[in-house]
Protein: Adenosylmethionine-8-amino-7-oxononanoate aminotransferase
Amino acid sequence: MTTQPDIEQLLAFDRQHIWHPYSPAVPAQPCHLVESARGVYIQLASGEKLIDGVSSWWAVIHGYNHPHINKAIVDQLHKFSHVMFAGLTHRAAISLTRNLLTLVPANLQHVFYSDSGSVAVEIAMKMALQYWHAMGRPPKCTFATVRSGYHGDTWHAMSVCDPQDGMHTIFNNRLTIQHFADEPHCRFGETWDARDLDSVEALLEQYGAELAAFIIEPIVQGAGGMRFYHPEYLKALAALCSRYEVLLIADEIATGFGRTGRMFACEWAGVQPDIMTVGKGLTGGYVPMAATLASAQVGAVISQNAPGIFIHGPTFMGNPIAAAAANASLELIMDSPIVANVACIEAQLKQGLMPARDNPAVADVRVLGAIGVIEMKEAVDREKLQALFIANGVWARPFGKLVYLMPALIMAPDELEKLIRGVMKGLSAYAP
Ligand SMILES: *Cc1c(COP(=O)(O)O)cnc(C)c1O
Structure:
């Protein structure tokens, strides 16, 4: 049994020495110490049992401590935990890839594994560069994207994040200049206006000859603002990319595996991207793993032209434990009505969160699939609001003006009700 002084000592050490995401080296407030997690609950050492509203950043789609994923990891551990992936392969990766290919758009035929979403994006961008190099068109070497996007924190992934409001403004003068079109304005579920693409078309017209690829998060712009845009936008974008000979990279790291109410958000628009990235929920959020998928065409062009290989190879590529976890997660997805479940979560989130519109501090409430967003008029005091959520039994992590929920896709109606109630109570008690 950990006593209160023990906990305080651990947290004091953590605060002095462990750097946490998007934090100062020594933050004003210590973190919360997690003792265990099961299903949709996180048990803190301090005694609170919190219902997790964010699935550990979109990732833990089946909940914590799921026996099927746990068993897959343990079974693999007892065979071997890692082997290099150059010249060697293993059943976990083969089985995972077989299952993955049944779920993704059918044109995607080659899977390149890595350890994080940002790296999967870097790999996607390198693939696009190598593709045009192999095609004998090296001038096609820059990238286009839309504003308000988020594609990760590594160097080239940062260069296609929103240039102004993104988290990376400070690095701008050191990043490769890419081309930015206006973000989509027609919202999901509202009337489509083809003029929404004008800025993209102008950009492709002007720079098409030097563009390797257009990268975009399909349907949901996540960390760049939690915006849901019209599927026609993606559809028309894909058509324009193909007209201007620009590869389309769909970044499904946040949206993949059912989150938006389709297995992949590209399905809303019937789009088959040339390259697609997945991560976050790939292993059910149990261990780090991401993947970059390429079309048969991209794979063939890179492989049949000098240098004949794709120049990338992470040390822990295809890690067997991660592959076993991911495979187990995909088995759960395939054996359960996950998309139908997300539709139920969507209906309940809509019903439960919409009343927040009556709160004068709230600017907008929107829901798509298992994503619920309450956008405030002003940026919130995160510490303050988070403390109110915790007091109401909820783990959520607002950023800027956004209070967002992306619960596990298996969250039961009574659990979701508890989550929504906690959030609404926390929010109504909140005064900046
Ligand atoms: C989270 C995210 C990434 C980066 O993934 P990491 O695993 O954090 O490196 C990239 N793209 C999108 C759309 C994401 O949501």
In short: The mean pLDDT is 96. The longest strand covers residues 108-114. The pocket of pyridoxal-5'-phosphate is lined by residues 116-118, 121, 150-152, 217, 222-223, 251, 253-254, 279-280 (CB under 6 Å). The chain has two domains: 32-65+337-429, 67-335.
